[in-house]
Structure formats: C-alpha cells, structure tokens
C-alpha cells in the first residue's frame, strides 16, 4: 500500500470551501447524499457547511437544514465553519458539535471576509469556546491567510504564532493553518507548522491548503511530516475563497488520498470516490482538477488504481 507516515486524517471540505465559488447550488437532499456516500467509503471527517451570511455565500444557505438531518453518529464526523459566538449557538441548536472558528491573520482579509478586525474576532473566541463546551463539542482555531494575504502580501510567521499563543484561543482543540491563496511552498509550510507545534499550547494541528501554484499535495505532505494530524481537501480540487482575490481550488481530496494511501483506501474504494466526485462536478458544471482522478481514467489498465 505504501501508506505515508506519519498518518493524518483527511477532512473533505467539498460541501463548504468547495462550494463557495461555484455558480451551482446543491439541495439539502443532494448534500446529505454526498455526505453519506463519503462517510460510507471511509472518509473520516467532513466539513459540511458554513454559517456565513446566505446573501454573501448563497451555496451555504441550507447549512442548518443539512445539520438537522444528520444523525449524532454522522455529526460526530462533521465540522461546520463559524465566525462568531452566535454562529456556534445556531449551529449547535441544529445539532453540530464540531466547530471551525475562523478568522484571518491580517485585518485586511478579516474585514473583507468577516467584516471585523482580527482583534475583534479573537476577543469573541472565549464566548464561542464556552458555547461549544456547553454542548460537549469541540472548536478549532482556524487562522486564514497564514502565509500570504491578497491585500497585504506576505504574512510574518510570528503573527500566526502570536495568535495561536493568545490565551483567548487556548480552549481550541486544534489550530488550523491555512494557505488560503495557495502561494506557500513546502519548506515554508514545514517551518510554520513546526513553530506552531513547538511554540504554542499543545493542540492538534490541521493544514488547509490550496493548489493555486500547483503545490497543494507537496505542501500537504510537508505539513504532515512537520506534525499536522489532519489535512483538508476537496473533491476534484473544487473551491476557493470569494473574499480572497487570487484564491483558486482546494487541494484535491483524490490527490491527497492517492499520495497518503490511508489503510481504508483500496483501489476499489478510490474508484468509487472518483465516481462520486465526477458525478458531483458534472452536476455543478465544474472541471475536475484532480490529477489522480484524471490518472484513474488512464488507458494503462494494468495499474491497479486505474478504473
């Protein structure tokens, strides 16, 4: 199998970050079917929606309906994007127990994305943590634009470390380091993940990468080697941030899985995953950017991973 070590969990973010830039909309029923297909195949974790304003991100308008239809066992493997304590409260009322509390390392992007300063978002985090604890949930500290900002350029790594060290974020179960624009390189990713692991309170580390400059998989493997225990990807490389000019698709889940080969991923399971991805992308009228999915359609049939 050649499983990549150390191991990390893939969180598929198709139904949140993947859908943000698409023109297509998915019904509650279609989202539920996708969630259940991915979970049944063995994908260990999913991000299934966002509490962002539906007038700004219409594809997230039915997030609460999706959460309300999931079983407790399914919800235990699903995450929802939040940016305020009120978001956590509303998502929790619908059944969510895993929350990704996100804000940006730079004020410029945080204002564009969330409409407040980074300090304001950080100041509100203890209340968000408290609400998550009240429902026996867990909450992640998600730092967008950890490497570069579309408005301010390069981000000082010490700024990211400072946020992760802040006592108002100590209640987080994970720290999510985001290459929002896909402009980081592997040595840079490894360096920042290592600093966060060594210089901030002990928490799980997540890497969220984009493939804008073609280094999505390389950066993901660098993050895992540096200590990330969860990594994000989206089917077919779908997605991007509508409030970050220059941000294109996420690193493809298919590419991450083919590179890391977790024990549950057999050639047959991979083939089923590619088919789920292809059907969804066709419905959304989006191209398939996954190199592994393209390889799976190769005429070189002697290779076990070719469909």
Automatic annotation (TrEMBL):
Q: Which UniProt keywords apply?
A: Lyase, Metal-binding, Transferase
PROSITE patterns referenced in this protein's UniProt entry, alphabetically: AIPM_HOMOCIT_SYNTH_1 (PS00815), PYR_CT (PS50991)
Q: Which InterPro entries match?
A: AIPM/Hcit_synth_CS, Aldolase_TIM, HMGL, PYR_CT
Domain Pyruvate carboxyltransferase residue range list: 8-274
Domain of life (superkingdom): Bacteria
Which Gene Ontology BP annotations are present? ketone body biosynthetic process; L-leucine catabolic process
> One GO molecular-function annotation for this sequence?
acyltransferase activity, acyl groups converted into alkyl on transfer
UniProt xrefs under Gene3D superfamilies = Aldolase class I
Regarding protein family, the annotation reads:
Belongs to the HMG-CoA lyase family. Belongs to the alpha-IPM synthase/homocitrate synthase family.
Q: This protein is called what?
A: Hydroxymethylglutaryl-CoA lyase
């Amino acid at each position: 199998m050649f499983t990549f070590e150390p191991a990390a969990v893939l969180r598929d973010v198709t139904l949140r970050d993947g859908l943000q830039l698409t023109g297509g909309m998915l019904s509650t029923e279609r989202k539920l079917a996708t969630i259940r297909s991915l979970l049944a195949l063995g994908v260990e974790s999913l991000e299934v929606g966002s509490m962002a304003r539906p007038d700004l991100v219409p594809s997230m308008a039915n997030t609460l309906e999706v959460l309300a239809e999931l079983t407790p066992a399914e919800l235990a493997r699903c995450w929802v994007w939040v940016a305020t304590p009120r978001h956590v409260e509303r998502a929790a009322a619908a059944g969510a127990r895993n929350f990704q509390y996100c804000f940006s390392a730079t004020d410029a992007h945080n204002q564009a994305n969330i409409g407040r300063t980074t300090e304001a978002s950080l100041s509100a985090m203890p209340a968000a943590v408290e609400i998550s604890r009240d429902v026996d949930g867990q909450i992640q500290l998600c730092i967008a634009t950890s490497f570069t900002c579309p408005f301010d350029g390069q981000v000082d790594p010490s700024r990211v470390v400072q946020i992760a060290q802040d006592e108002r974020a100590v209640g987080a179960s994970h720290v999510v380091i985001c290459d929002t624009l896909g402009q980081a390189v592997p040595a840079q990713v490894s360096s920042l993940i290592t600093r966060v692991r060594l210089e901030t309170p002990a928490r799980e580390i997540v890497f969220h990468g984009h493939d804008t400059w073609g280094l999505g998989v390389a950066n993901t493997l660098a993050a895992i080697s540096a200590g990330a225990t969860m990594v994000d990807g989206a089917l077919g490389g779908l997605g991007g941030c509508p409030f970050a000019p220059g941000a294109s698709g996420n690193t493809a889940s298919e590419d991450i899985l083919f590179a890391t080969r977790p024990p549950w991923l057999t050639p047959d399971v991979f083939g089923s995953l590619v088919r789920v991805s292809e059907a969804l992308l066709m419905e959304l009228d989006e191209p398939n950017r996954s190199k592994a999915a393209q390889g799976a359609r190769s005429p070189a049939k002697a290779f076990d991973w070719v469909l």
